[in-house]
Each structure stands twice: as C-alpha cells, then as structure tokens.
C-alpha cells in the first residue's frame, strides 16, 4: 500500500499537542503578527493573505504568517488560488485557557492608549 501523496500546496501545521506556550508567546510578541491575530479574532473566520495591508514587504509578510502557522496560532489552507488564514482559537483556548483573550484585550487597550 502506498502512502497518500502530499500536495505541495498542503502547509505543515503542528497538531494541538505540539503547540508550545513559548512558541505562541514568541509569535505574538511581534506587532505585525499581533495585528494579524487581532484582525482574525475580530472577524471570527478566515481571511486571505491579500486582505492584510501590512506596512512591510511581501517577503516579510510571508515570514510573519509562517511564524504564526508554525507556532500553532493560525491555520492556513489554500482555497483555489487564495491562501486563507484562520485563528486556531479552539486549540489555543483548550491548551492555554484565557491566554488569547487576555492578550487580545491587552493589545486593544494598548491601541487605545496610542501605543
């Protein structure tokens, strides 16, 4: 029996038990990545990479999405030609109850303060 072929468009993600707190905190320590997560949390669904208008180069944007995906903060899937991004809220809430909400609340308060 042969193993199923993995498409070059399938992106690697950690399974829930592989998600580490230090990886999540590292991913969310960057202002651009935190901005992406805040937008995803705000819509509660998926957004395409092209939706995000970040003040960085395309290669830097790609790097930020990869860090978020590899840390287990987001899930990325191709839908046609678009790479869609969704927050892995259920996984994060199960592993680290209250963490995501606390970080998002703190980030929102920082924006209000002008930071």
Automatic annotation (TrEMBL):
Pfam families: HTH_20 (PF12840). One of its GO terms (molecular function) is DNA binding. Keywords: DNA-binding, Transcription, Transcription regulation. Residues 13-107 form the HTH arsR-type domain. InterPro entries: ArsR-like_HTH, HTH_ArsR_DNA-bd_dom, HTH_MetalResp_TranReg, WH-like_DNA-bd_sf, WH_DNA-bd_sf. SUPFAM superfamilies: Winged helix' DNA-binding domain (SSF46785). PANTHER family: TRANSCRIPTIONAL REGULATOR, ARSR FAMILY, TRANSCRIPTIONAL REGULATORY PROTEIN. This is Putative HTH-type transcriptional regulator YczG. It comes from Streptomyces afghaniensis 772. The lineage of its organism: Bacteria, Bacillati, Actinomycetota, Actinomycetes, Kitasatosporales.
């Amino acid at each position: 029996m042969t193993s199923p072929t993995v498409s070059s468009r399938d992106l690697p993600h950690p399974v829930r038990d592989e998600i580490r707190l230090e990886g999540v905190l590292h991913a969310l320590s960057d202002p651009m990545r935190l901005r992406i997560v805040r937008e995803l949390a705000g819509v509660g669904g998926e957004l395409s990479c092209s939706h995000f208008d970040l003040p960085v180069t395309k290669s830097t944007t790609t790097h930020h999405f990869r860090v978020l995906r590899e840390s287990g903060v987001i899930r990325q899937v191709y839908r046609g030609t678009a790479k869609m991004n969704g927050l892995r809220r259920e996984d994060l809430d199960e592993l680290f109850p209250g963490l995501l909400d606390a970080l998002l609340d703190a980030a929102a308060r920082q924006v209000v303060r002008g930071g």
